[in-house]
Amino acid sequence: MMKSFEEFQTLGKDGMEAYVASASAVTKGLQTIAQEAAEYSRKSFEKGSQAMEKVTAVKSFDKAIEVQQAFAKEAYEA
């Protein structure tokens, strides 16, 4: 009877250790995804702001369209 209890206790301990290791891996993965998403958003915002500055600085409508098309192409290819 005592051996069965010890085996059950060991099994529970092993299961808990596996759960903790798994939860740590998932947490690290989610942190990485969140960091990459934030970096992408920051870069995207910066590029959009730069494009808007360029569009507002041009003197002609044709040049504004050209700048906007270049931005759209770059955004699509990225």
Helix- and strand-based class? Answer: mainly alpha
Order of helices and strands: HH
Radius of gyration (Å): 27 Å
Largest β sheet strand count, sense and barrel closure: none
Estimate the global geometry from the Cα principal axes: rod-shaped
**Helix share, percent:** over 70%
Low-confidence stretches: none
Measured between the Cα atoms of the first and last residue, the distance is: 65 Å
List keywords for this structure.
78 residues; mainly alpha; 94% helix; 0% strand
Notes on the protein architecture:
- With 78 residues, the chain is mainly α.
- It is 94% helix and 0% strand.
- The protein is built from two helices and no strands.
- Helix 1 runs antiparallel to helix 2.
- The mean pLDDT is 89.
Please sum up the structure shown:
With 78 residues, this protein is mostly helical.
Task: Outline the secondary-structure elements.
Elements: H1 2-57, H2 61-77
